[in-house]
Write a structure and sequence with these properties.
InterPro entries: TAT_signal. This protein is α+β, with helices and mostly antiparallel strands. The protein has one domain. Strands 1, 2, 3, 4, 5 and 6 form a six-stranded mixed sheet that branches. A hairpin with a 5-residue loop joins strand 4 and strand 5. The protein is globular and about 30 Å long.
């Protein structure tokens, strides 16, 4: 018996394979779930010890093209009337190849224009 996979079947298989690959990679461009988020604004972003710019920085700033591992959000300082949402991150990857393992807070409007927050990222139950 000969089995022929139709165009719809091939497309469904390709979509399933790509979905599994994306989930396994764990990299995102900001979504409703926590995970690696690529900085997409023109601002540099400080990683602070609390959700305010007066807190000390815990590691080097990150810039457009770098990634932060976003876990959740919390309300904090409102900078220049752009909102008061901050993301809690626990790792940073710089496009230069440097990887940081510092935990801290980044200002959401400067990270991804608050996209992860607006699309359902969970609120932190600490901080």
């Amino acid at each position: 018996m000969k089995f022929t996979l139709g165009r719809r079947g091939a497309m469904a298989g390709a979509v399933a394979a790509l979905t599994v690959g994306a989930l396994a990679a764990g990299v995102t461009t900001a979504s409703a779930t926590s995970g690696w988020t690529r900085l997409s604004t023109s601002h540099g972003v400080g990683v602070y010890g609390n959700h305010t710019s007066t807190a000390g920085k815990v590691t080097s700033d990150v810039f457009n093209g770098d990634y932060v591992d976003v876990l959740c959000w919390k309300r904090g300082e409102n900078i220049a009337n752009q909102g008061n949402v901050w993301y809690y991150v626990d790792n940073e990857w710089h496009s230069s190849g440097w990887y940081g393992n510092a935990s801290g807070w980044v200002y959401a409007p400067y990270t991804d224009a608050s996209y992860a927050w607006r699309t359902g990222l969970g609120e932190c139950n600490f901080g």
